[in-house]
Amino acid sequence: MLHYTLRRLLFAIPTLLVISFLIFAILDLAPNDPTGNLPLTISPEVREKIRLSLGLGEPFPIRYLKWLQQFFVNEPLNIIEQTFGVTIGDSENRLRVTSWATRSPVVDLIIERTPQTLWVVGMSTLLGILIAIPIGVISAYRQYSIFDQIGTFISMIGFSVPTFFTGLVLIVIFSVTLGWLPSIYDTTHKVTDLASFWFQVKQMLMPVMVLALFNAAQLSRFMRAAMLDNLSQDYVRTARAKGMKESRVLLHVLRNSLIPVVTVIALGIPQIFGGAIITEQIFRVNGLGQLLIVGIQGADIPLVQTLTFIFAILIVLFNLIADIVYGMLDPRIRYE
User: CA-CA distance, 267 to 275, in Å (whole number)?
Assistant: First the structure.
């Protein structure tokens, strides 16, 4: 297992380098001008000086190599220094990936926004998994029952209806009509007592439920299909013929059925960060999704490049985690 993990990590390095080059090249070729939002009264000479100050006067290969050094070397060193309180080299003159709009380090902006996204996305992912797996198991075990039909109907609605429509419906019902929940997420709110904790729960309910419904709808269908496929296998009939308890039979079936579902869960976690872009815009959650939208609107290329590449790293990482979990679920899988 260790050798397999090390091989996959080594293979991930050239993969991420190719992805980083493609992201950098595509965004660099995009028709975005960082001076496009400036007043029209600014002369072309001043605009050109601003572009040169942002490093746009250098050739593409030089700018790409500088970005690689800043992201893979300078930023990790800066994080180590801030975490452990040590000094490594000349930290004051160390170049960092800087936002064109705010002139602040991009990594610092991402770290500042990450807790808000993790609260919403993390809770919705966990809730979606806890809802989807039992529904999928019961629907498959009691195929064509009333529970199965209701679960199928709700899953089709949750998967078919886009998250922006679901969010607007919840706002109209629970915020406008009933007035139970706030429609705007207060990112400056701090939990200090029971009353503030209850407010935090209320403002998280709607964005979490929107993402959890979409996630659970997809996972429950995969779980149901995997369970139905394994329930018809010969080893299930053999176990039942030998008098094995039904609970143990279902436990074995569940373990085998989780293998394809783990893939969906692992690869779906980075995608939820992308899906949270819409949800964060609806509920005004000041998270990574909203930060990415602001960066795209303002042609803040370093911010968009860094965020997009972090999403790519998450996809590669969780793909590796899924492969490792396979061996834990099915002992027949060997990596050596």
Answer: 13
Q: Tokens 């996204």 belong to which residue?
A: 117
- Structure tokens that stand for 333 in this block: 């899988």
Residue 76 sits at the vertex; the CA angle it makes with 70 and 82, to the nearest 5 degrees, is 120
> Helix 288-297 vs helix 301-329: angle between axes, to the nearest 10 degrees?
140
| Amino acid at residue number 95 | L
Cα→Cα distances 218→147, 155, 224, 262, 312, Å: 17, 7, 10, 12, 22
123-160 pLDDT per residue, tens:
888 898 899 999 999 999 888 899 989 988 888 888 88
Residues 6 or more apart whose Cβ sits within 8 Å of residue 95:
66, 69, 70, 74
pLDDT in tens, 164-189: 888 889 999 999 898 888 888 887 78
What predicted TM-score, i.e. pTM, was given to this entire model?
0.80
Burial (CB count <10 Å: 0-12, 13-18, 19+), residue 215 = buried
Q: Could you give the domains of the chain?
A: 106-329 (1.10.3720.10)
CB 64 within 8 A of CB 24: yes
